[in-house]
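Quick log. Single chain, no ligands specified.
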Amino acid sequence: MKALVLGAGIVGITTAYELNRDGHEVTVIDREEEPASFTSFSNAGLFAPGHAYAWSSPAAPKILLRSLWRGDQALRFKFSADPRFWKWMWRFWGQCTPERAALNTTRKVRLCNYSLDVFHDTVKRSGVAYDGRTGGLLYLYRSPEALAAAAAKSRILTDNGCRIETLDRDGVAAKDPALAPVKERFAGALYAPDDESGDCRLFARNMGNWLKQQGVAFRYNTTVRGFEKEGDRISAVITDRGRETADVIVLCLGVYSPHLARELGHDLPIYPVKGYAITAPMAGRNNPPSIGGVDEETLVAYAPYGDRVRVTATAEFSGYGRGHVPKDFATMLSTMKTLFPDGADWDKASYWAGLRPMTPEGTPILGPSRMKNLWFNTGQGHMGWTMSHGAARITVDLIAGKPPAIALDGMTAVT
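-> predicted structure:
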């Protein structure tokens, strides 16, 4: 069949890979000049089933409210005049119960673990380079009480297939010697030995080049405007460069997916949640991190790959704006300079802000639409790199009429 993928972020690229693998004639459309030029451009790079907790938790409302007068909160709330923002926030609030948080976390971690298996198979088959690092990830805690609470909380992940170990501060230093000089700052860490890291953007762009060699076509600098419909099918995708036709279409446009889906009668509960990122060179530095991790007190995530380190933080509920000012990065820089003072050239860092396509539950929207030839693979939120490979395989299996590898309860637009 002729397949059309709308979007060339990590979700669209992995979807194109799986469609090509199944023998389809694939074309990818994206408004940017290269793959991974929007949300996937500068994400954390953590491939982290061991950190697949739902953001909509009982603690989230208090953190968001505190952010109205405190700028150091990991979750930030800013007022917006957009009625869709308030509708989304109301749904998010509704997920912040212990029962819903546990259910959403269970669904997330199952998809993440499956996706890790698919990812390994993809890398083995394609040989695509992405500056990957195995060896696990560290989730660092400052107090014994916080570490003990985290260990208890992690049972929901270990019950669903994750391996997680509790380390004292000496164990932390042993896993990453770069933390040895500051180990006294921590009570210990949770260590997920199967978690990994790597440059999502590099993977997407190298995979795009690999897919071209396999016959996949790319239409860059092309914006999707809408659809032509005939009955219960899409007859054409309308772009600013003309019409595109296909037997099957997959919508992978992240925060812009709801705009097009509304034309088809779908109200996708996806809204942007802004994140901030720093990338700093490590070449010539004395003590860079050897594996990635998260400082759980500040929720600053970091991942070394190649000759650089990526640092990310903050979930800002504020709409579609992508602007940033220096103070937005203050907590991130302070945290990293404390943990790895000579781990990177922090004075030469570059700064970026992007929009995560979040659902209130934190799980993506996969599967069929009301149109028989249009499918959804969108809404992966802050775990697009981790979820993308499994979500792509599930989507293409559904297109082929095969049962998905995992249950999709709560992850579909059509029930």
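The first strand starts at residue 2 and ends at 6.
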